[in-house]
Amino acid sequence: MNTEGERMYKLAEKLFPICRSITGEGVVKTLSIISDCITAEMTIHHVPSGTQVFDWTVPKEWKIRQAYIEDENNHRIIDFEKNNLHVIGYSLPVDKWVDLDELKEYIYTQKDQPDVIPYVTSYYKERIGFCMSENQKNSLKEGKYHMYVDSELFDGSLTYGEVVIKGRTQDEILFSTYVCHPSMADNECSGPSLAAELINYVSKRDNRYTYRFVFIPETIGSITYLSRNLEYLKEHVKAGFVLSCVGDDREYSVIESKYADTLADKVLKNILSYHAPQYKTYSFLQRGSDERQYNAVGVELPVVAFCRSKYGEYPEYHTSADDMTLVSEKGFQGSFDVMTQVIEALEHNYYYRINIICEPQLGKRGLYPTISQKGSYDAIMALRDFIAYADGKNDLIDISNIINVPVRELCTIADQLDNGGMLDKKR
Amino acid sequence: MNTEGERMYKLAEKLFPICRSITGEGVVKTLSIISDCITAEMTIHHVPSGTQVFDWTVPKEWKIRQAYIEDENNHRIIDFEKNNLHVIGYSLPVDKWVDLDELKEYIYTQKDQPDVIPYVTSYYKERIGFCMSENQKNSLKEGKYHMYVDSELFDGSLTYGEVVIKGRTQDEILFSTYVCHPSMADNECSGPSLAAELINYVSKRDNRYTYRFVFIPETIGSITYLSRNLEYLKEHVKAGFVLSCVGDDREYSVIESKYADTLADKVLKNILSYHAPQYKTYSFLQRGSDERQYNAVGVELPVVAFCRSKYGEYPEYHTSADDMTLVSEKGFQGSFDVMTQVIEALEHNYYYRINIICEPQLGKRGLYPTISQKGSYDAIMALRDFIAYADGKNDLIDISNIINVPVRELCTIADQLDNGGMLDKKR
Amino acid sequence: MNTEGERMYKLAEKLFPICRSITGEGVVKTLSIISDCITAEMTIHHVPSGTQVFDWTVPKEWKIRQAYIEDENNHRIIDFEKNNLHVIGYSLPVDKWVDLDELKEYIYTQKDQPDVIPYVTSYYKERIGFCMSENQKNSLKEGKYHMYVDSELFDGSLTYGEVVIKGRTQDEILFSTYVCHPSMADNECSGPSLAAELINYVSKRDNRYTYRFVFIPETIGSITYLSRNLEYLKEHVKAGFVLSCVGDDREYSVIESKYADTLADKVLKNILSYHAPQYKTYSFLQRGSDERQYNAVGVELPVVAFCRSKYGEYPEYHTSADDMTLVSEKGFQGSFDVMTQVIEALEHNYYYRINIICEPQLGKRGLYPTISQKGSYDAIMALRDFIAYADGKNDLIDISNIINVPVRELCTIADQLDNGGMLDKKR
User: Which of the residues C21, C52, C55 would you substitute to probe the A interface, choosing the one with the greatest number of A C-beta atoms within 10 Å?
Assistant: First the structure.
């Protein structure tokens, strides 16, 4: 039996070659592969092009079959078949011979990283465009070139997937990840792979919370999703996590919610402070993925983003260097371990209150050393501190933060006291 | 056409030679000169001696015509004509020959600065007194001396000036400066000169706020003014600034309000944090000018003090060394630039709220790059951050503080969005 | 006439030899000695064994007459007569010859401090036990040993003492100290000695507050006391102090209340910040004495603990090395000085408000320099700052903290202004 890390890496590998964009077959195929890997049902939604979603309009659907540039000798100097980053997202079709000067007007490179192909899109302005490395561009010789893109923009739909796993309450935990980038490993394939594995984890538990997983195109997808679900989400979502760039094995990162004051901020930071004390905190000023929409004015859901290396901060980001060598089973496993600890912490996160006045007599319950000597209480300080701060003012994560004991240990203590009938708990 | 700095320096030069005190002709003449330099009407108020103003009584008016000490050879060793600091403020008249020992009982010096003549007053206890440098005092020879002061204390009045420039609302911004020190450049002439120039600045704008400028004798003047206007001011003043020592070209200083929690504190610190990041903050414990009364128990107006070198902190303070060489056009201009930025920030300072749910689509409004590539958003981060925090909870200055962008830039952004109908604003 | 330090040291000396436990004759004798040293009446309470007190049951009473271990030559290797730490608290009786191996099962030592006899108890589980130094244990030779303890456990009572000194109001200040440890100087005898001296101090004053002093066995005693007085204490106690380890002359320590937010925290820290600026602050996580119960869920009284060297932190703690050489008259005197300053601060601690609008004219009241020159106000800054912050929002200790002037000086200022009719005050 495989580890979660191995399974996530394998799923990412399957998703990697697909040419995704914010609409079209790539998204559909991606959702279908994910759907096959999960133990819960995924609902697929299709929203027609032209649909008004808040301030935006669902764009036309983009289909691409083939694309290349060939030289006078019919040698293809770049080919979409070999790397789908070679065409800018939403490129219009073209079939034209041009000279080098004109060709260069259509070529996008990343000058500060001359070896890599950049990832470029032009969703909301119609353009033709190709991407290659700056080095390749510089090596092109004078002559005629054939620009060829066989693509079309048409009234189709925007597609997204949704998995809801009902819990004992209607309170919800939201996981959101995107399915709209072409072949990028960490910045695209890792998020859906982690989400899939978390679906399988959650499906096996008896849950207090209802868990909602959404697989959407970034920005336009979250806006579309929110336009259809905002009121319900505002009423029910207690914490949410955007998953992106979760497959590499470098640092851990939190991108805080707008005011860094939500349950999502609190629980994720608490877990990371034990799991990876050197984790990085980015303020909302450094946001970039769908936490933008979830925290937007009028939405204001309690959502943070979780990454290993944060998008926009690592050199391979949005280039052909973000490939399957950048991610690893170990990297995935770390992310999975963090998010499952987050889930466990949330599931146990009540406002606890000891229902006994003064300290309970722990001795008669076998919870206290029977001999009293200097040092004999050290082993039970977590228990005593939990009892002191379980006063109805703090939730479990607050108590963990106050008494400096991991939530995991406090869950055991809380259960022990709860079983002894000494504890009241409230949502 | 002169710069504001030049004009302010010139006005200060005119004001410098006048012998002012808390009452009397010096104040009247000062107000008259200022009145001639401003493009708005100044109302002059006379409050009779003996008037009860809260816990205080308006004192008698002091008039001084001449004062000197001469030696046995009728050589005037000090003469009020040459420097009006040579007589203590409110000195009683005297015309008496004394020997050196007796003379010394009437002489005040600044022992720790032996070169300078100190500024000394005795408003509330009747006294005769002369001031000179410690060095001069030490050089006096045995012999007879003629002490002569031709002054009188009589039932007259306390005079102050007031300029009110009506805005679109009754909400007010208060500027307060004093006109009661004799020949001191930074500690006296600079404040009224800056206030005059700000009057001219404000007169030319279309203002949201009503601007109130008061030119008063320090302490007794502000108490008198408050005793007549307290209820109105408490209802309408949203921020106030005491202007003192604003003509030198050293650091910038803020003296905070009592709890450092007013709009005046917030806006002045915000502006200085960009204009002069090394500015000095003094707590209210280091107060000293009329912010004392504006923040006093029962008054509690949102008022701070603004200085270049803070009164009481620079060596020339309250001595003959505080002359026109201490101030400069450049020093004045810096203060003017800060206070006009403060005014602009206040005028634009609303609680803004984006009236669109989720992020607005900036692309269709030409506010967003049409091509999406790594780094392409850096130029519009201020716009995006403004939109994120314009949620009705923050005023413009709060947003500036959160997103680290000067208010000046945010005004442009706010106008842009406002013109696009995307923004609600509230006082 | 002796100093307080001398008297406290002497009382501690009398209390030292007594073998105390949480019940029994030692407590009764201790209370009787204290009672003889105080100028107020102590009420002695006896609570029968078996009484339910919240989650606990008052234990049986323990009586011990004699205890020793002798070797084959009837040589007593340890003897309760010589040091009452040689028997564990609540040891069952025994009279049995055993070999060395079996003997060792009954011997408790402090391995990390091989020279000292540890203090060990087993209140809630019936055991036989002896204590000696690790060195002595290691030096024992093979052979037969006679374990002898002449003790009994029987239905008796738990005893505590209570002194209440009525003040002008029912608001109360609580002092709590324990009387349940055998021969330990700092960790046992110092607290009751200080409490006794404070009783004498308070008895001589005209008090605003009612002062309550309780002398109880630790833990079970405070629980018992609270079970009988909780509602009254919750209504009336405004600040409370557990006194423990107050006789040595090392640092000063505060153990904060649960959220470090009570009047007791505030006043004690304020006083220590002037008396001993290097004092140590321990969070409630490092609690250990009866502040545990006073801050427990459902109790939540505003109580901190005060120590010189904190219990549990100094090497002699809970060993035979905590003897009369560890405490000193000087150490006691320091604690007394701190706590009497605390009492004085509390007695004067009102919310003050100047009833004059704007600054009062201090000059006409003789409180202000009549000559005004640079530097002339330094001497009255405390007065001016008090007036600025006596605005009804701050109590006297808050003002002290804001303006950085000791409460002691502020009391004089407050009295001065109060006598002048310029001050309103509220509880």
Answer: C55
Q: Taking the mean position of all CA atoms in its chain, how far away is CA C206?
A: 24
Q: Which amino acid is at B415?
A: D
Query: Residue B95's CB: how many other CB atoms inside 10 A?
Result: 9
Spatial CA neighbour of A108 closest among B10, B322, B369, B406: B369
> Which domains, ranges and CATH numbers included, belong to chain A?
4-59+157-347 (3.40.630.10), 61-154 (3.50.30.90), 351-426 (1.10.10.10)
**Residues of C with Cβ-Cβ distance to A356 under 8 angstroms:** 54-55, 297-298
Report the b/e string of A411-424 with b at 16+ CB within 10 A: bebbeebeeeebbe
CA C189-C194-C200 angle, 5° bins: 130
Burial class of B392 by CB neighbour count within 10 A (0 to 12, 13 to 18, 19+): middle
Task: Provide the ipTM.
Answer: 0.94
B388 and A56: CB-CB below 8 Å?
Answer: no
Contact criterion met (CB below 8 Å) for A412 and A344: no
- If interface means Cβ-Cβ distance under 8 Å, which residues of chain C face chain B? 353-354, 356-361, 363-364, 370-374, 381, 385, 387-392, 402-404
Structure token digits, residue B296: 């006093």
Q: Find the length of chain A.
A: 427
Using a CB-CB cut-off of 8 Å, the residues of chain C touching B132 are none
Show the CA angle centred on residue A32, arms to residues A28 and A34, nearest 5°.
120
The three-state secondary structure class of C172 is strand
Residue for token digits 């499906």?
A203
Q: Are A186 and A63 in contact (CB under 8 A)?
A: no
For residue C285, list chain A residues with Cβ-Cβ distance below 8 A. Answer: 381, 385, 402-404
List for chain A the helix, strand, coil content (%; round to 5).
35, 25, 40
Subunit contact C317:A374, Cβ cutoff 8 A: yes
Distances (CA, A) of B402 to B261, B270, B382: 16, 11, 11
C164-167: long-range pairs with CB below 8 Å, 24+:
C164/C43, C164/C210, C164/C211, C164/C212, C164/C213, C165/C40, C165/C199, C165/C202, C165/C203, C165/C207, C165/C210, C165/C211, C165/C212, C165/C213, C166/C210, C167/C207, C167/C208, C167/C209, C167/C210, C167/C211
Cβ-Cβ contacts under 8 Å, A371 against chain C: 88, 108, 120-122, 125, 127, 129
Where does residue B374 rank: exposed (0-12), middle (13-18), buried (19+ CB within 10 A)? Answer: middle
The helix (H) or strand (E) run that includes residue C385 is helix C381-389
Sequence-ordered alpha helix ranges (H) in A208-328: 220-236, 263-275, 291-294
Subunits adjacent to chain A (3 or more Cβ pairs under 8 Å): B, C
**Closest Cα to residue A347, out of A153, A137, A150, A204?**
A204
Q: What is the pLDDT along chain A (427 residues), one digit of tens a residue?
A: 689 999 999 999 999 999 999 999 999 999 999 999 999 999 999 999 999 999 999 999 999 999 999 999 999 999 999 999 999 999 999 999 999 999 999 999 999 999 999 999 998 889 999 999 999 999 999 999 999 999 999 999 999 999 999 999 999 999 999 999 999 999 999 999 999 999 999 999 999 999 999 999 999 999 999 999 999 999 999 999 999 999 999 999 999 999 999 999 999 999 999 999 999 999 999 999 999 999 999 999 999 999 999 999 999 999 999 999 999 999 999 999 999 999 999 999 999 999 999 999 998 888 888 788 877 777 789 999 999 999 999 999 999 999 999 999 999 999 999 999 999 999 8
CA dist., res. A316 & res. A90, Å (int): 22
Q: Which amino acid is at A193?
A: S
Could you write out the DSSP letters of every residue in A321-343? T-STTT--HHHHHHHHHHHHHHH
Residues of chain C with Cβ-Cβ distance to A353 below 8 Å are: 297
* Cβ contact, residue pair B124, C364, below 8 Å: yes
